[in-house]
Amino acid sequence: MPDPAQIELGGQLYFQMCRQCHGPELQSSGAGSFDLRQFPPDDPQRFRESVMHGKNDGMPAHDDILTNEDVDALFAYVVATQQARQARKP
Ligand code: HEC
């Protein structure tokens, strides 16, 4: 189980650095960014690679501003938010 403090940190980082493109609660604003609700929860390596080094033109690299611990926290937040959303559906 991920640590709640880690999810909390991930949520703060998400709010500051990712939300403007990926939307509140991972709900993309529709501006062409990847829908993080669909990101495979069993692929932390792909997550790290994309967040640290960016992807195509749209997704910026973050390796100058985020630590590996930050990326772990962001991934924990993304997976926890996916699960919370699923729990809310019938
Ligand atoms: C400037 C807008 C922008 C910001 C800021 C941004 N993203 Fe993205 N992100 C994108 C776009 C656009 C894509 C789609 C890239 C593509 O596949 O062409 C994307 C894709 C992704 C993907 C999927 C990559 C894959 O493997 O297919 C992940 C994961 C992701 N972003 C996480 C994050 C996280 C975490 C943050 C905050 C640290 C963040 N993004 C900040 C625009 C952004």
Structure description:
This protein is mainly alpha-helical. The chain has a single domain, classed as Cytochrome Bc1 Complex, Chain D, domain 2 (Orthogonal Bundle), CATH 1.10.760. Helix content is 54%, strand content 0%. The protein contains four helices and no strands. The longest helix is centred in the C-terminal third of the chain and has 21 residues. It is globular, with a radius of gyration of 12 Å. The two termini are 24 Å apart. The model has no long low-confidence stretch (mean pLDDT 92). The structure holds heme C.
CATH class: Mainly Alpha
Uncertain parts: none
**Share in helix:** 40-55%
- CATH architecture annotation name: Orthogonal Bundle
Shape: globular
- Provide a count of the helices: 4
Structural class, please?
A: mainly alpha
Instruction: Please tally the β strands and state the result.
Output: 0
Order of helices and strands: HHHH
Q: How many separate domains make up the residues? A: 1
Output the CATH homologous superfamily: Cytochrome c-like domain
The main pleated sheet reads as: none
Task: Please supply descriptive tags for the structure shown above.
90 residues; mainly alpha; Cytochrome Bc1 Complex, Chain D, domain 2; 4 helices; 0% strand; globular; binds heme C
Please write out the topology.
Blueprint: H1 4-17, H2 19-22, H3 44-53, H4 68-88
The structure holds heme C.
Q: What's the quick description here?
A:
Pfam families: Cytochrome_CBB3. This protein has about 90 residues and is mainly α. It contains 4 helices and no strands.
